[in-house]
Every structure is written in C-alpha cells, then in structure tokens.
Amino acid sequence: MKLATLTSGGDCPGLNAVIRGIVRTASSQYGSTVVGYEDGWVGLIEDRRVDLYDDAFIDSILLRGGTILGTGRLHPDKFKAGLETIKRNLDDAGVDALIPIGGEGTLKGAKWLSDNGVPVVGVPKTIDNDVAATDYTFGFDTAVSVATDAIDRLHTTAESHNRILIVEVMGRHVGWIALHAGMAGGAHYTVIPEQPFDIAEMCKAMERRFQMGEKYGIIVVAEGAVPKEGTMDAGLGEEDEFGHKTFNGMGQIIGDEIKKRLGYDVRTTVLGHIQRGGTPTAYDRVLATRYGVNAARAAHEGNFDTCVALHGEHIELVPLADAVAHLKQVPEGRYRTARTMFG
Amino acid sequence: MKLATLTSGGDCPGLNAVIRGIVRTASSQYGSTVVGYEDGWVGLIEDRRVDLYDDAFIDSILLRGGTILGTGRLHPDKFKAGLETIKRNLDDAGVDALIPIGGEGTLKGAKWLSDNGVPVVGVPKTIDNDVAATDYTFGFDTAVSVATDAIDRLHTTAESHNRILIVEVMGRHVGWIALHAGMAGGAHYTVIPEQPFDIAEMCKAMERRFQMGEKYGIIVVAEGAVPKEGTMDAGLGEEDEFGHKTFNGMGQIIGDEIKKRLGYDVRTTVLGHIQRGGTPTAYDRVLATRYGVNAARAAHEGNFDTCVALHGEHIELVPLADAVAHLKQVPEGRYRTARTMFG
Amino acid sequence: MKLATLTSGGDCPGLNAVIRGIVRTASSQYGSTVVGYEDGWVGLIEDRRVDLYDDAFIDSILLRGGTILGTGRLHPDKFKAGLETIKRNLDDAGVDALIPIGGEGTLKGAKWLSDNGVPVVGVPKTIDNDVAATDYTFGFDTAVSVATDAIDRLHTTAESHNRILIVEVMGRHVGWIALHAGMAGGAHYTVIPEQPFDIAEMCKAMERRFQMGEKYGIIVVAEGAVPKEGTMDAGLGEEDEFGHKTFNGMGQIIGDEIKKRLGYDVRTTVLGHIQRGGTPTAYDRVLATRYGVNAARAAHEGNFDTCVALHGEHIELVPLADAVAHLKQVPEGRYRTARTMFG
Amino acid sequence: MKLATLTSGGDCPGLNAVIRGIVRTASSQYGSTVVGYEDGWVGLIEDRRVDLYDDAFIDSILLRGGTILGTGRLHPDKFKAGLETIKRNLDDAGVDALIPIGGEGTLKGAKWLSDNGVPVVGVPKTIDNDVAATDYTFGFDTAVSVATDAIDRLHTTAESHNRILIVEVMGRHVGWIALHAGMAGGAHYTVIPEQPFDIAEMCKAMERRFQMGEKYGIIVVAEGAVPKEGTMDAGLGEEDEFGHKTFNGMGQIIGDEIKKRLGYDVRTTVLGHIQRGGTPTAYDRVLATRYGVNAARAAHEGNFDTCVALHGEHIELVPLADAVAHLKQVPEGRYRTARTMFG
C-alpha cells in the first residue's frame, strides 16, 4: 500500500511528529511506503512530492517545530477546480490513501475530496483547539505552555507599584489558549472572543487588587477579544469570514484604554508567532504521534472518510463530516470556572 | 461553610494548585473558609491545622512544586484507630466537609472515612497516572516532561559509536511515565512493569540499529520493569504489597547485562526525584486548578462520597468507591502502539 | 557588625540571590546581622526596614525573580535633600555599612552618600549590561536567554513563504541584549541603538535571503534602535536624559516600513517585561551570589567607597567612582563580529 | 584560502556553533572555503572529509547539540605515527590551515602538529571548564544549567521528613560543574575532586539542618569526588592517567554511607550524559560562535600556533602551548566562597 500525506494551514508544533508516526507505522507494521506533498494542497495540485523513508532523518524530526513538508494556502475555488488534477496525480503516483493534516478549512477540503472519491483519513490540526470532534488538538499544549511561561515571568517583575501587565496571546475566534494560559499562569483577568469584555469591570478588578495592597495585575488578552457593544471605542476593526469582528493589536488597545481610565503604568507583551514555533511539549508529541499511528492504521484498514480524534484516553475515528461540523468555542461554564480564579 | 483539606502520600507537582483552587472557590463563590491539616492524615489526627486565606500567599503557590501543607504516611491500622479522634477534631474545628488530596491509599482511607460518616470529596493524586476513575492525574504530565527533556538531550550526545544510553524513570507498578516519555522522546526501546522484558530482544534491537549505521540507542526503563521469567538474572528483588516483584536500580541492572552481552559502552541516567519536583507544567496546573474548583463546588453542593475526575474535556464527579477500584495499568494495545515507534 | 542593603531601579533577575549572598556571608562568616530597606532609597529615607535572618526563607529566595525588598525610584533632588535623614536612620538602626544594589543612577547616589561619609559597598545591577566597571551584570544572561528562546521558536514557524519575523527586545540606550540574543538565536539581522540602521540595507538583506530560497527572515530590534538620519520616517520620537532619541514600538515601526517597502507578510513579537522576570539562569545566580558574598566581605574588611565587579573569572573591588564613569556601549568591533553572522 | 576543521573528544554543546562560526566567517568575510574532517583525528588520517558550505544547513546547526562532524578518539601513538599521512591529506585537499576543536588532549595533539609544521589555530572545548588559558569554555554553562535545573526540582520535593537528596554531576578531575551548579541551585553541601571530603562533616551538616527544622538536605557530588584518606571505605577505585583516584558511582557510594551512618532516607539522581547533550544555552552559543569567528580570522591573518580564549569580555589569541600547560582546577578560595553558602 502507498500512503500520501500533506500539511496545510498555519504552523503547529507536532506536525512533524504526525508525519513520523505515519511513516513509521506504515513501514514497520504494514511494509507500506509514504510520499509527502509539499506546501499543502498546492503541492498536491502541482505534483510536488517527496518520498518519506523510515530512516534516521524521519526519526529526528520528532522534536522539530514547523513541518518538513511545508504548508501553503489555496483558495477553495482553485482547490475545487483542481479535483481532476489531484485525482490524476494521486493515481499516477500510485497513492492508495491520502492523510491530510490540517485545520477546519483543510478538513473541509478533505471531506470534499472524500465525497468525490478520494480515500481520505484526516488528522485535525489547530493550535487554537477549536475542532469540535476531538478533545484536544496537538500544538495547543505547546502554545499554552509558551504563554504560561511568559505570564510566570511577569509575576516576578515588581519594579514599581500599581503596574498592569498585559499579555496578548493567540486566538482570533476562540479563547482556549487564553483561558488555559490565564488559568495556568494565575492571571488576574482573562478576556476571550466568546465573551465580549466590559472594560469598566476589568478596571475595577485591577483597582480592587491595588486597594488590597497588591502591586500589580496581569491581564491575558486573546487577540480576538472584543469589547461589549458601546462600552469602549476600539476603532473600526474588521469583519472576518465568520462575520466576527476583530481588531489588530487588541492587547495594546486595552492597555491604552486602561492607562487612560486609571492612569497607571501599563506594559504589554505581544507573544505572536513564538506560540506556534519551537519544540512541541511532551504532551503534544505523544498526541501527534498517536494521531499519526492511528491514521496510518485507519488507512490500512480501509476506514476512509474519517478523522482521528482524542476522546478521553483513546484515539478514535470519527466521521470526517463531524470534524468540520462547527467551531468548538469556550463554553460559558468553562469561562465561569476561569473567572472563579480571577482577582 | 467550612472546608478542610490535606495532602497525603508522595510528592506531586500540582498539589498547591489544587489547594489554591479550593481556597479561591470557597472564598469567592461561596464566602466559605478553608483550613488545611499538616502532613496528611497525621496532622488530622494530631489536630495540626492552619487557616488558608484567599490572599496573595495562596495566589503565589500556583507555580510551586511540593505542598505547602506537607505530606506524611500513616499506617492504615493507626489511621483506623484514629477515627473518633478525626471526627472530634473535625467537629471541634467546625469543618463541614473534608477534601483529601492523595493517591490510591489516601482515597481508600477517604472512602473509609466517608463510610463512617465523614462528608468527603476526594481529589486523586498520583504522579504515576494509575488511578482508574480519571483519564489523567496532575503531576503526570510534569514527570513525563522532565523525563522527555532528559531523553531529548541524550539524542544529541554522539561522542562515540555504538553507545547505549539508558534512562531510568519512575513507575514501580505501572509504566505510564515510561510509555509517554519514551514515545515523546523518541526512545528506541521502552520497558514497563506490565510487560516483562526479554533482554535478548532488547539487545537485538540495539544491534539492528548499529547495523543500520546508527551511532547510538536510547532505552527507557521504568523502575519497576521486570525481566521475563528465566531470561536473565536480575538478582533477588523484593515483593511489594501487590505481590509484584521489583528490583532496585533496574536501569543499572539492564545496562550491566547489555554491556556483558554486547560489549558496547553503556551509560545510565537515573532521574529519581527530579521527576516529582519543580514547577508543574501548564497542563498540570490547569488540571489541578480545575480539580480544586470542582471539589470545592461538590462539597458546597453536598455531593459527598465522591471524587473529582477528568473525563475527556470535563471534570466530573465519580463515586469514591470507583476511584480506588483498581490500579490503572498500561493496556497491551497502548504498549503495542508504543512498540510501533521503537527501533 | 550590622549591614544594610536595598534594591533600587528596574527589576532584574538575581536581586534576591545577591541579598541571600549578603545575609549568608554576614551570618556564617562574621556573625553579623543584616537589615533590608524597602523600596530602594525611598524606604531608607522613610526608615522602612526589615530584619533579614539567615533562615529557610532567605535560602528559598535564590530562585525567585523580582526582589523581596521591593524597589522604587526617587528623584535625585529629594534623595540629596534626605541626606541627614538617611544618616540618622542608619545611625539609629546601628548600621555599620550600606550595600545598595542598583544601576547607574543608584550607584551615583551611592557614590554621593559615600562622599558624604556613609560607608558604602555598591553592587552593580543592570539588565542591559551597561555598567562599565564590570564584564557582566547579573540579569543580563537571563534576559538574553528569554529573548533567544523566543528567536529559537520563530525559526521553526514556516507557515508561508517570504515572511519576516521581528522580535523587539529590551535595550533603550545600549544593544547588548539584542547583540547577544541575535547571535545566540541566529537572527538574520540585528539593530542596536549604538549603530543607526539603514532600512534599505535591512530590506536588501531580507530580499537576498528570499532569492536564495530561504522562506523567512528574523530581525532582532533593540527597543532603542534608531534609523540613520534621513533614511526613513519613524515619527517624532522623544529625547531622553542622555539626549538620545528613542521611539516607542520600534519593532512595529520597522515592521510596518518593511511591509510597505517589500510587501511581504511581517509579524512582530514584543517581549517586553518577560525579559526582566522569572527565575534567573544558573549563570546569573552564580554571579549574583558571588557579588553578594564579596560585597559582604568588603564591608567587613572596611573596603568602602567600592563596588564589586566581575573581571574574567574573578570578583574584584573597583572604586565606586569607576562604576559610574560612563555607560558601556557595544563597541563597533563587537557589532562587526555580529554582522559576520547576519544573512 | 581553504580551512579545515574537526571536532575531537567528548561531546559538548556548542561544537556546531563553532563550526558555523568558522564557515560563515570564512565565507562572508574572506570568500574562503571550509572542509570538515569526520570523527576527529581519525577522519583526518583516513581522509574522510566533507565540504562545509555557507548554506541553510550550516545556519540551522546553531541550536543542535552534538557535532555534525562526529568525534572520535585516537591513541597518541597512532596519531603521531600518522603525521606524514595527515600532512599529505591536508596538502592533497589544499588546506591552508587547520582548526581543531577539542579538549586538553586534542590541543596537545594540535600543538604537536603545529610544531611539526602544520598551520594550526586551536579552539578549546571542555565541558568541565578545565582549560587554563581561557576564562570559560563553551558547553560548561549548559552542563551547569542542566544540573541546576535538577537541583531546583529537588528543592520542592518534600514527601517526608529527614530526607537527603544526592545529585551526582560530571567532573572526574575538576569540580567546576559541581561548584557552579551547587551554588546556583542552593545545594546544602557540595563535594569536588580538588577537596577530599570528610563524610563525618557532611553528615553533621545534614543533622544540623534537621535539628533546625529543615525537612531535607541536598548534596551535589562531582563524580570524581574522593574521601579524605582514612575517613571512609569507598572501595578500591581506579587510578587514572593523572594518578588521580576515582570511584564509579560516587553519588551512590556517599548516599549509602550517609544512610548507614544517619539512618535517613537517601535518594540519588545520576544525571550522566544529559549534561553533555541538548541545545546549548544562549551563553554557550555566543561564546562558541565568537570562538569560531575569531579562529577563522586568526587563520586568515596567519596567526598560527595559537588558541582562541575568553579573557573578560574579549576573545583573544593565546599561544597554543599555554592552552595545554595545566589543568585548571577549582582554587581553594573559590571552594571557600562556595562553602559560605552551604548549610
């Protein structure tokens, strides 16, 4: 049997661990071979592929961030227009099953390919943890760890009194990274896209800390955080494809507003892409490896039109349709639990 | 309402995060107070208790390894003989519910107290991840991370050819830490207590690597690993309370045997207690905090005779009896998956 | 003998290690006692002091960022006006020698006190490494490590082609952190305050990378970087007390300009205060401890009007006057060496 | 001009950073080329060499532990017998200058080659920091950091009272790693090869801690530590080439003896090779890069028979003869300073 894999969409620590898991399993358990397409769907359409051998190189990629296959973005229209090319390329290369590793958009594309006759097993990938069908996605734990490490460091800076420290973390549509990093880091306030924030309440929380003799307050801001309608002027913002309004530099915007309202010193850290890079955590490497092993198994067992998913302790197969059904947002109850620890 | 908590048994990163979660929830959500008993059951019997306030100190313990309450061990007979003292001490202190944080032994004690009329909500704690009722326990991810970091470092030492590097990790009865660290670290062989090992097969795996041109091999050894009956002389060993035979210094024993059989240079790292200490990972802090929040809620809602547990994404309450039903071992299937990645 | 110490100015990992070094040495070697003044000079004038015992607490602060004594800033005029109060407070407390730990401003104050009859031994503290009298200052290695770790992570993000990643690091007047982090992290371009940058040259360096098939470029920007006169519009900026022009958000300014000129995707990370916080590196803890030990010794041996300094492997005493003589900038030769590794 | 380089002796984080520094400098500053010989002197004699290009691969090795060239050991007699072969190989390859990177033994070999007409610039490499001619060697800071991180973790394990935790670190002949890690980690006792230890005094120090109410004690043991003549039975040991007696498993030996004398629980961590591996610290990467840049410069400027060395802030050239003059041991004064912090 011959498998093909590709990585698509934004970076995510653990991508290489999935690839390694697929290649090792195909080779050692089934005597199969694996090819990788470069730069996501683009490489599949342009037939740019490399053989992935079960060798020392593949072994060494476990620790590496990024993806050895590269990623790319392709407009859905171009992707769909390429169906025949894709099928021909897979045929010509003798590929029996395709294992695309990607986020919601990629999995939607995978579903469409599957509906059009391509044998597909998907692997969910999103640093934001917003895929509904799985408990957790790899890369998320690494991003949370990086953000938590930053918050940890801020706790010990106490240069002056009444200082507010803001950490802007990833999360344009969902607040999982902010929620977990804020809880792990012991932030004093956390705002997420799912729950429009009230700047006045946030200011009050900071004031209360200072009145109780605390020197500083730490606020975690998901980049997609939005103010409650009419509570503050955050500029015009932009509407994204989901109709969700986002603002660039939300950490800075909030910081400026707090400074204006309270007059305190405010310092902002913008973590940016360092959350997407670097060696994955042990957790992410185990999860990604298990995804790879199980995706290769599913392909060999003919379980197509599926997606691997973590349910509790187990890796299971779910219908590919389920994986793209909806964006997994932070439920109100989880935010309420997080709020318990604010202050 | 007044809650009491205590920590019992071996160290485990995240204990302080649980305590903080209990205190903050009790205070901010219910206006309740919390006392902590020192050194586990011992302090409860000796009535050594401290008030735990929702203040800057409690806030600061989130990152700290160890436990601010201390832990201790008490023989079950002494514990049972102390029932009346325990009840009187709790009564005198006005405690409405007890939240013991501990491993299998502690939870068994908690169950017995519960059966004898003490309102109890348990919090499972085991660095070994061997509590059946919950997907994962806090501290486990930290231990796996420490072990994985050690394995990562070994991969780049290439001083000489044909060297075998052994890492002995924790796990006297179950192999979860070895299994996960071995997979996360890309070890070439991993042995766990659940699956008696065949030293000849292990040697063969190392030989195969060298024949393929690899310079080195890394073997992860759970401290409780045992050889297959009759395959090698590992000394007398000792039988533990479960009738399970263990050997002290299994990493060294295996290393010596490999050296004897193959003649290669073997170097051993014994991680020991560094796996139990230090700042918990972000994952463990989130899990421990959620355990604390939910245990405090359960106590306030009168859900006694229960234990908090992680099921998928959710923290749920399980009957305390379930939490101590049996030791969660590594199932054969999971070890098989791990083996896929050996070599 | 009775020593007093205080910490002044911005945060710096290692401050607590110095304090611990002073207290342990005074106690174990000389049987002396130590008091600490809170919030820098402010606490000295307001006579807010705490006894520092050689106990488990002092032992535990070694790993902690921040300072247990707090820091503060005081206007030089107020400081000078407080001379008599300071002397009386020290007298009343029975203090025989004062060990202020601080940056250039603090050491200037210390020199002035020394000239006015207060027995002083200074400890240089600057995260920026800009004190001329010593090879290195503690805190610097930690800041460089944090920045390097961020750069490391960016190397593996390869989401799309032709992306430029900017990391803004500390360094308003000197570029040591940028220089070292850029070299340690393998940045492709680094700009420092000492060498006004040419945006056109920077753009050309990025273009050259992409032409050679590289996917991305990483630029390290010291916050105090300035463009060469007339080469780009960076806004008005502000002049600081040294007559040096600085611009807020230099990382963003450079990023916007590059985007405008080249049209590529640019992402910016602003590390901010996370460089000043957290557990100090082993290097900084050793340096800070040795400073503390040697400052306490100097005080007991009556070597006043001095400052501890690192020269090669040795901690030596230099005249306090030398420590504040001038700001230690990055010499041209060191920047030239760094440039060798650009590209 | 054409340079050659090779790495010899034990592993050391930073080797690749030196190689990268040499290649980049040769290429970007002088338009020269570089070849690398594999496996140290062995590859030079067997003429196994690879071209090292100034490309993305060389750029990427900065973060990697180990050495891309491999290392090896060769008996001095064989080395000397190979002189003519070496000279012919270098000649045939058109090599103008050789830059060997290695420890004392390697530099002695380099000196001998130099005396026999080979143009040589040496780069000192020893994880143990025992080269006399330089303040610090790369790899040392990484080893100290790994050991310190382990000690940090042990501080927070407090499972039971009166426990003694032993960490065995590298250092067969000199105690620099133990000295620095013990000071950075806040160990309560540290033993080094240079100062034979008195087990009775060590036990007394632990007893004193427990009497003062401390729960645990941490002892750092350099692997080459030796007991004072007649104070305890440590087995026979072996004499090394310097006539220095060493014992295998000194951490365990000391632990057993303490347990025998005091009866307390003793746990031992043996770090082993994890101290030699993994990503170098920022400090080591800067030092190693500067060594590489300056060695390449020295070669181009014809400054042969030299060795690069760190003196204070500067990289300087010292006569190769000086670099191998003697082993740099921990001076008594430094150990005395360390002792100040014991207890």
Automatic annotation (TrEMBL), chains A, B, C, D:
<dbReference type="GO" id="GO:0061621">
    <property type="term" value="P:canonical glycolysis"/>
</dbReference>
<dbReference type="InterPro" id="IPR012003">
    <property type="entry name" value="ATP_PFK_prok-type"/>
</dbReference>
<comment type="subunit">
    <text>Homodimer or homotetramer.</text>
</comment>
<dbReference type="GO" id="GO:0030388">
    <property type="term" value="P:fructose 1,6-bisphosphate metabolic process"/>
</dbReference>
<dbReference type="InterPro" id="IPR000023">
    <property type="entry name" value="Phosphofructokinase_dom"/>
</dbReference>
<keyword id="KW-0067">ATP-binding</keyword>
<dbReference type="InterPro" id="IPR015912">
    <property type="entry name" value="Phosphofructokinase_CS"/>
</dbReference>
<comment type="pathway">
    <text>Carbohydrate degradation; glycolysis; D-glyceraldehyde 3-phosphate and glycerone phosphate from D-glucose: step 3/4.</text>
</comment>
<dbReference type="GO" id="GO:0003872">
    <property type="term" value="F:6-phosphofructokinase activity"/>
</dbReference>
<dbReference type="GO" id="GO:0005945">
    <property type="term" value="C:6-phosphofructokinase complex"/>
</dbReference>
<dbReference type="GO" id="GO:0048029">
    <property type="term" value="F:monosaccharide binding"/>
</dbReference>
<comment type="function">
    <text>Catalyzes the phosphorylation of D-fructose 6-phosphate to fructose 1,6-bisphosphate by ATP, the first committing step of glycolysis.</text>
</comment>
<feature type="binding site">
    <location>
        <begin position="73"/>
        <end position="74"/>
    </location>
    <ligand>
        <name>ATP</name>
    </ligand>
</feature>
<keyword id="KW-0479">Metal-binding</keyword>
<keyword id="KW-0963">Cytoplasm</keyword>
<dbReference type="InterPro" id="IPR022953">
    <property type="entry name" value="ATP_PFK"/>
</dbReference>
<feature type="binding site">
    <location>
        <position position="163"/>
    </location>
    <ligand>
        <name>substrate</name>
    </ligand>
</feature>
<dbReference type="GO" id="GO:0042802">
    <property type="term" value="F:identical protein binding"/>
</dbReference>
<feature type="binding site">
    <location>
        <begin position="103"/>
        <end position="106"/>
    </location>
    <ligand>
        <name>ATP</name>
    </ligand>
</feature>
<dbReference type="GO" id="GO:0016208">
    <property type="term" value="F:AMP binding"/>
</dbReference>
<feature type="binding site">
    <location>
        <position position="267"/>
    </location>
    <ligand>
        <name>substrate</name>
    </ligand>
</feature>
<keyword id="KW-0418">Kinase</keyword>
<protein>
    <recommendedName>
        <fullName>ATP-dependent 6-phosphofructokinase</fullName>
        <ecNumber>2.7.1.11</ecNumber>
    </recommendedName>
</protein>
<dbReference type="GO" id="GO:0047334">
    <property type="term" value="F:diphosphate-fructose-6-phosphate 1-phosphotransferase activity"/>
</dbReference>
<dbReference type="GO" id="GO:0070095">
    <property type="term" value="F:fructose-6-phosphate binding"/>
</dbReference>
<dbReference type="GO" id="GO:0046872">
    <property type="term" value="F:metal ion binding"/>
</dbReference>
<keyword id="KW-0547">Nucleotide-binding</keyword>
<feature type="binding site">
    <location>
        <position position="10"/>
    </location>
    <ligand>
        <name>ATP</name>
    </ligand>
</feature>
<keyword id="KW-0460">Magnesium</keyword>
<feature type="binding site" description="in other chain">
    <location>
        <position position="223"/>
    </location>
    <ligand>
        <name>substrate</name>
    </ligand>
</feature>
<dbReference type="InterPro" id="IPR035966">
    <property type="entry name" value="PKF_sf"/>
</dbReference>
<feature type="binding site" description="in other chain">
    <location>
        <begin position="170"/>
        <end position="172"/>
    </location>
    <ligand>
        <name>substrate</name>
    </ligand>
</feature>
<feature type="active site" description="Proton acceptor">
    <location>
        <position position="128"/>
    </location>
</feature>
<dbReference type="InterPro" id="IPR012829">
    <property type="entry name" value="Phosphofructokinase_III"/>
</dbReference>
<feature type="binding site" description="in other chain">
    <location>
        <begin position="273"/>
        <end position="276"/>
    </location>
    <ligand>
        <name>substrate</name>
    </ligand>
</feature>
<feature type="binding site" description="in other chain">
    <location>
        <begin position="126"/>
        <end position="128"/>
    </location>
    <ligand>
        <name>substrate</name>
    </ligand>
</feature>
<keyword id="KW-0808">Transferase</keyword>
<dbReference type="GO" id="GO:0006002">
    <property type="term" value="P:fructose 6-phosphate metabolic process"/>
</dbReference>
<dbReference type="GO" id="GO:0005524">
    <property type="term" value="F:ATP binding"/>
</dbReference>
<feature type="binding site">
    <location>
        <position position="104"/>
    </location>
    <ligand>
        <name>Mg(2+)</name>
    </ligand>
</feature>
<dbReference type="Pfam" id="PF00365">
    <property type="entry name" value="PFK"/>
</dbReference>
<comment type="similarity">
    <text>Belongs to the phosphofructokinase type A (PFKA) family. Mixed-substrate PFK group III subfamily.</text>
</comment>
